[in-house]
């Protein structure tokens, strides 16, 4: 029986993208200091091309953010790797992803933990990301439509929170929803933004440190008030 040409083309594309992802990880992540092997392997597995608009497929593996519509972006691969490495995930961690966007960061997190809650303020993006993640087999991601400034109280406390939009201050709800020993990584600022790592120690003390200058889309909704 003759092979299905469409199936062969798809398999060839998948093989090609796997090769390009491997090169991206080696050059853009490992080559710039990301050394957590679990994180690198997760990014090798997550099919980034499935989360990039078709018109930008030739830029899938550029080390830069790309527009996905509605004024939002998919973060550059290095930043996804850095933020994921900073929260230092364990398989049984409860994770909140704020700013679902295309769903790519959620997919990378889902490669590392059993359950991810992801929240997106733009309803069409939330619906599209939910369908995309399910179609790709990510059954351990729950996408919610809502304002990430308030976190996701019904899922708290979280061992890790990863935020992909920049408020001008750290939302108090996200710190409240962080479990003792948990980590929050978030871009903070207006024109000048810093990636912040916030840790809640076992005694409840909150420790903050700046990691790197970044540029994210601004957080909308309650954060704008």
UniProtKB/TrEMBL annotation:
InterPro entries: PCMT (IPR000682), SAM-dependent_MTases_sf (IPR029063). Keywords: Cytoplasm, Methyltransferase, S-adenosyl-L-methionine, Transferase. It is an enzyme of class 2 (transferase). SUPFAM superfamilies: S-adenosyl-L-methionine-dependent methyltransferases. PROSITE patterns: PCMT. The keyword S-adenosyl-L-methionine applies. It comes from the Bacteria. NCBIfam families: pimt, PRK00312.1. This is Protein-L-isoaspartate O-methyltransferase. It comes from Stieleria neptunia. The lineage of its organism: Bacteria, Pseudomonadati, Planctomycetota, Planctomycetia, Pirellulales.
